[in-house]
Amino acid sequence: MTFLANILDYLEWRGDVPFSADPFNEIDGLILSQFCYVPLEGVVSEDFSEEITIPDAYRKYRPDDVDKKLRILTFEQDNLLFRKLAESKRYRGTTLCGYISIVEHSEDMQFSALTYRLCDGSGFIAFRGTDGTVVGWKEDFNLSFMDKTSGQHEAICYLNKAFADDNSVIRLGGHSKGGNFAIYSSLFCDEAIRSRIANIYSYDGPGFRDEVIESDVYKSMLPKIKCFIPQVSIVGMLLGSGSEPKIVKNSAIGIKQHFSYNWELKRNRFILVDKLKKSGDVINKAISGMLDDFSDTEREIFTESLFEILQAPDKETLKELNKLRFYPSIIKAISKLRPEQQAVMKEAFRKIAQNGKGAFFKKQISPED
What we know:
Elements: E1 3-4, H1 7-14, H2 26-35, E2 52-53, H3 54-60, H4 75-87, E3 95-104, E4 109-117, E5 123-127, H5 134-142, H6 150-162, E6 170-175, H7 177-188, H8 191-194, E7 197-203, H9 210-213, H10 216-221, E8 225-230, E9 246-248, E10 265-266, E11 269-270, E12 272-273, H11 278-293, H12 296-310, H13 318-321, H14 327-335, H15 339-364
């Protein structure tokens, strides 16, 4: 049987194939982008000159000691990924360095990155996507109205620092918001760094405001940008990209398609399909319609209002919010919003419902269905 279900199967079946026999590919990019979700405090140094091999890092790693608040939904799968990477001949010569993880509530910033020195002589930076923190999700929304978020600024600084003292080929990647950071940092890093970038991988990462997409530097980097989204993509279809992303086959339901472990592949390539699933198309049209109709000021008010509501129960992670006993606090928070905030929220939900309904009925009568 040649079908490979997901990235864990890829390491099980092809982990003994060195980069010299099968060069770095889109599946490797997703693996490294997903691995940077592993909390590596005390395991990998923040210093770029202090490298550690993946097997040595795995021996130092203590998953039972990880704070439960840092254990995202894929925590157990990420631990398994770590073990398979440590056992893999393909990544045996890869070292890790420059691990950083910051959550700064005052700046609406959740930022984390990890640098890999691969045995083929190249370097790869993986930017962590949105984790389970409320502030992390808020930064995703901030992308819709801010010229540059704090996380995007950190990504530029990180990239410039990571490869300032060598001449290696550079690849960048990230899942979810990390994909946005990977692309954004490549556009605004030092020219000497940018000229060495071979590829940028974005896995269901949100796009950019029009002024970024229409810039000369974005157009010049576009041939190096590789964007992939699942069949039901919500995060990855936010804002524009300037190109058509490749759609990866995915049998999971709804938002679970966002998780890397549900992306289907065969050998060293994703299994691609021609179009989004109907449900994903409806959601995208609904949210995109709301964003298109709103001004930057309205987008900002919507974001601030939404996260005032979510933060009302005084919880830091979405996992903590996902409990019925916190719903009364959220309902109470809505009633306390300022009149202009309540007005924007009501209009946002009206537009989402209206655009979603329109998209649904258009799809219903489409001859392709």
